[in-house]
Amino acid sequence: MNEIKYEIAALISEAVKKRFHAEMSAETLEGYLEVPPEKNMGDYAFPCFRLSRELKLAPPQIAGELSKTINSISTYTMPKNIMDSDVEINHKFNNSKFIIAKQMGGYLNMDLNRAQVAHRTIGAVLEGNYGASDIGSGKTVCIDYSSINIAKRFHIGHLSTTMIGHSLKRIYDYLGYQTVGINHLGDWGTQFGKLISAYKRWGTREEVEKEGVEALTRLYVRFHEESAKEVDEQGTHTLEDEGRMYFKAIEDGNQEALDIFNWFKAVTLRDCEKTYNMLGVSFDSYNGEAFYNDKMQPVIDALKEKGLLSVSEGASVVDLEAEGMPPCLILKKDGATLYATRDLAAAMYRADTYHFDKCLYVVAYQQDLHFRQVFEVLKKMGFSWAENMVHVSFGMVSYEGQTLSTRKGHIVYLDDLLKQAQEKALKIIEEKSPDLADKPTVARQVGVGAVIYTVLQNNRIKDIDFWWNRALNFDGESGPYVQYTHARCCSVLRKAEAADIDAEPDYASLADDAAGELVALLSRFPETVYDAAAKYEPSMVTRAVTDIAQAYNRFYYDNRILDDNPAVRAARVLLTRATRDVLKQGMYLIGMEAPEAM
């Protein structure tokens, strides 16, 4: 919550009541407040057409009357806010009002006293946990993300789902929710029977243990190469039959097949864990497709009992024609289950186990129809919680202008990308800061941070084209730029330790445009975190820390932080400290580390 914004809304509510004898809650009015596009228009604007119908007056007339009423008020009692406390607010600060209202057409615009905004914002930041909230207390959010495939290397295509999901988990945690991070493993299908066949024919345990997923991938490729050659007199692919046989053995619970299958999973997770560790990502559950193998029959039974299953061309489906969608396939002609069957079982299990208030699926936009079908089927089954399931979609990733394709061999593995990022970052750091201590650690923070920032920089639905010269640009809108600004703040604060900052801060010295813009951005950070959660959009936090970094650098160049005047110096150092803290917190929420020196 942005307390200053809420205070403005509460003041408008009081003015509406006083001038027009009408009731409008501060919570409602707060949602209508906007930040004007031009600085000379003020700090906030309220579109008075929102009140026009109820008050039966033209917006300009409402704006004019409200501006007079607000400017005549010196104190008032704020209505109860979300913390359930009555707050007495004094609109005087150093003999000047905190809020000055003005009419601009049909808008009611507000100029805020910059000194008091700085005083209050800096104080709030330095109290700690700025932007944190208990708004999610007692509520649970399940987040399904990353969802790697067993026996396959972790590639750049999994980066968006992994980092969007991880960031959302941190954001919801910060807002007081109980979160459950779920890695819904791709660990079911005939490919695992084929892999067992290949392993038993050409693999060794020592080789797989040593090379991990790389060895499993090589075995799988060889299976398909040999399968194309090994055909019996009737033209049947005998290896394919053997692969299906081994998968049926897994389904039937054959101990040898299960042992090999579970070992493949352990080898894959061990390799992926190295990548997850580099990214700082963790999960609460690794229950994948195989986990729901014995949980699908109750789903099928429930669909039959509710009369939702019908037969179409031999397959069992749920008709969704009335909802404008193709039928949702539940069982193939041969009775085999499909992805939808497993996702229905997974949703029911999560609802029963976690009693979630919201369940997010961070999956590429190509699966939009699939999730709309699954959610609709759950609604037809009568589950009220189905309304709280959300597909958090995202765009595709390309690499330096080249579309990624496994079939065409255009693939970038994530561990290779992260290692390369660290190597490139180390080379830049050695050139720019040869005397920097512990350069490898900083290079890891910067390299990995550059990759994460690139993924979370823009609206998640936009496609991403990853270029090294953009990702590792220390001067533009990039991860290294934000990290460098944090390091600059740390450097200023280290120098300030030797200066006198015990003087009473002169917050009026923070009324210039550069300081005012920086303070305004800091004041809006809590609201940004809340909006990022509400819109499932971590890029809002990325944008916020980038704007704050740019604003601090303008402030840094326009003002002498360690000024000769002790009161001015104290104010500017406190603003630097607040900036450092918000940058660090913002980077944490999107999964980046914050080096203290670069």
Please outline the helices and strands.
Blueprint: H1 3-20, H2 26-30, E1 44-47, H3 49-55, H4 59-72, E2 75-78, E3 87-90, E4 92-93, E5 96-97, E6 99-104, E7 107-112, H5 114-126, E8 140-144, H6 159-174, E9 178-182, H7 190-202, H8 205-211, H9 213-229, H10 238-251, H11 255-279, H12 297-305, E10 309-312, E11 315-318, E12 328-331, H13 339-354, E13 358-362, H14 368-380, E14 389-392, E15 397-399, E16 402-403, H15 414-432, H16 439-456, E17 464-466, H17 468-471, H18 479-496, H19 513-523, H20 525-534, H21 539-558, H22 566-590
Parallel strand pairs: 8-9, 8-13, 13-14, 15-17
Antiparallel strand pairs: 1-7, 2-3, 4-5, 6-7, 10-11, 11-12, 15-16
Helix pairs in contact: 1-4, 5-19, 5-22, 7-9, 7-10, 8-9, 10-11, 15-16, 18-21, 18-22, 19-21, 19-22, 20-21, 21-22
